[in-house]
Amino acid sequence: MRKILWLLALALIGSTLTAAPRVASAQQLTTPEKHFGFRMGSDRHVARWDDMVAYYQLLEKESNRIKVVNAGPSTMGNPFLFLFISSPANLARLDQLREINAKLSDPRGITEAEAKQLVQDGKAVVIQSMSLHATEIGGSQMTPELVYDLLSRTDDEAQRIRDNVISIIVPSFNPDGQIMVTDWYRKTLGTPYEGVGYPSLYQKYTGHDNNRDAFMTNMVESQYMAKYLFRDWIPQAYLDHHHMGSYGARIYVPPYAEPVRPSADPLVWREMSWWGAHIAYKEEEAGLSGIVNDAEYSGWGHMGFHWITPFHNVAGMLTESASARLATPIFIHPDQLEGDTRNLPEYEEQTNFPDPWPGGWWRLRDIVDRQKVAAWSALDLAARNRETVLWNAYLKALRQTQRGAAGTPKAFIVPAEQHDPLTAIKMINKLLAQGVEVERSARAFTHQGAVYGPGTFVVSMAQPKMGVVRWLLGRTFYPDNTWTRDQDGNPIRPYDMAADVMAEFMGVEVVEAVEAVTAVEGGMAKVDAPIAVAGKVAKGPGGYLIDGRLNDAFRVVNLLFDKSVAVRRVDQPEGASARAGDFIVPGGSDAVIADAAGRTGVDFAAYQGEAARGSHEVKRLRIGMYQRYYGGNMDEGWTRWLLEQWGFPYQSLFDADIKAGGLDAKYDVIMLPADNVAMMTGERSAVSGGRGGGGGGFGPQAEQFPPEYRSGFGAEGVAALKAFVEHGGTLVAFGSAGQLPIERFGLPLRNVVAGLAPKEFWCPGSTLRVRLDNAHPLAYGMPGEGLATFLAGSQVYEILPTDHNERVEVMATYVDRDLLQSGWLLGEQVIAKKAAMVSVGLGQGKVVLIGFRPQHRAQTHGTFKLVFNALVSGPNAAAAAAGSGGIR
To answer: Fewer CB atoms near the end CB (10 Å): N or C, the chain?
Structure first.
């Protein structure tokens, strides 16, 4: 008996010694609850970004299983973090593991045997991002718990994850917005406005549109993510955690529903079903109800981060949790729950929704629980199947390269000769940001009977990212089939755009090559780094000439204005030497000119003519732009960013500024970003929003906002804007905003697409062909034909007859037939030969209506000049307006 007791004692001592390091390891880490003072997801508690940054830095000091990387400042100067979590051994060899991953993601030049060895040596990589949309707070609030568990748990599952996976976590994809929303919530806590959504854009410029920036990477946050996601790490899976409306399923998990965007490797779609099934299984295993997959979110979405990644050969996925009222609970009655979405027509049990949530109180903690299970499950699958996911990364890259080599086109050629060559360079740099391989010719070459000059770019389809190349450079048609029509034949709106073709948006000519372009033809060399262009300077007897076809010519003009350098603009072409719209700089210090050329890439050519002949002096105009609340206006935010990037000073105008009147004394141009009349004027119907409960961009009732955040300039503001124009100002309206001056100013125009049924006219997010009158000052520098980006709410104009039809001028007109370049268009006959952009004289001023969005998401470089031209003075504008008298 003593012997047995002695053996038991030894066993107990041994087990205690074995367990001791595990317990000590857990005890050495500070828990989220201890650091923040509350459990994550607790009612009416939200951790702020600066405190979260401090927590992750603290964990880095306490644990050798985490590495915190500050990628740099966000748009507003806050740290943007990437958290690397794995075993200490893996973290010690991150560079080697990244190189292994890179070779598997682009296996050109390695053998199958080498690939198999890389699989044995490599680790699975999973990237997850949180709360890109800042009011969708669940992800950022869940992450401290997820990180703590990954570091502290000592069970086999956690150890397997750390040993086999490099987990890269973006704890907040939008640090600025996280701070804005947290401060707002704390400010309204305990007031009648508790839980209402943030009243302005929750990213300085883009708001909810920040995830639409993945392929253009305008924002610095997008640039950081693109570096890790598309170039440095190229994970096997990417999971982006979001919120949706409050009155449906509790959480959506992969896969997507139909329709699918083609041209990704089939393994990607199978993987997303695989990952999603595992996540859903673990959610059900944890006893969490309301899980839906294969529903709501289609496989053809915008080219945002989780929708572009499949074409990077990454299983790009998202979760969407039902929203609370930020951290305030919301009560939902059972009869308020609804389906009525893709693959969930009713809120009832079905195979992809086997356990409907019954209703009741819904809390932030409920969101945290579900997102935490989803995030952990993704890592668990990767750990259990490390070799499979790595081998599939190799297969996807290999097969996509083979498909690109065998298919048509074989390549896309970007000729050196472009209408705006500097914009073409910008497009190439954006492709490089995606990790796309680009080559450049050292000399002129002939291909398929066409001659291409030195500096021409070639983007081969025989590369792993052929799917990215295909969708960003190739003509695109949205499917018109049973997945995209309802039972009555009405078209179903795409999730966002019907086409996101970078080349078309940017106005860059791209040629499809049916035959492969060989390296010998043009002396091709791989472009290894972003291209920087420095402009050349040569002075003539008349000073300098700047090509007005360049978007960056306006950057130059604004830089020169900053230094009080005089600028003129050509109105009468001088043969081939100067076109209408070119800029003349009669003088200026050599240092100022050299600096402008170096910063913009614009050439200052020698001007041989006489500056004062056939030109007018360009004046910097005083610009105002309307900005409202109710969640802000993304079109306004993007326009602000655009103006700042091109150096246009402006003033944001709020309701009080407009209603005060006397606008002509302060401004020369006032801009109305795309918006509906009711939202601008503040009519009640405008702001009675959906049932989203504060997440996913859903709008609340006006009365839910504090009084100071209830927008609308009313009839008083309309009268002030009309007076501004009549006294000589220029009002510029984009898209749907044009309805305000049409209705309230009595302009002789009719929007021909207003009120039409979808079967009569339908064009969601497409590029359409337009003819441009580039002899008109508002269209100076444009090609004779271009592409307009048409979205829901865009307008098309019929000019109504009056005694003074000459007071309406047309700058852009839809072509006669075959209008669609990319996207989806029904009823082209409705808008064929109709006006897309007009200027209407009113009193001494004018109203410029651009029926489409020429500055859409700061992506449509091909039509930026239509905006910029309205922001600089034209030839004899005041005299012309006074002479005509305008419409009264």
So the answer is: N
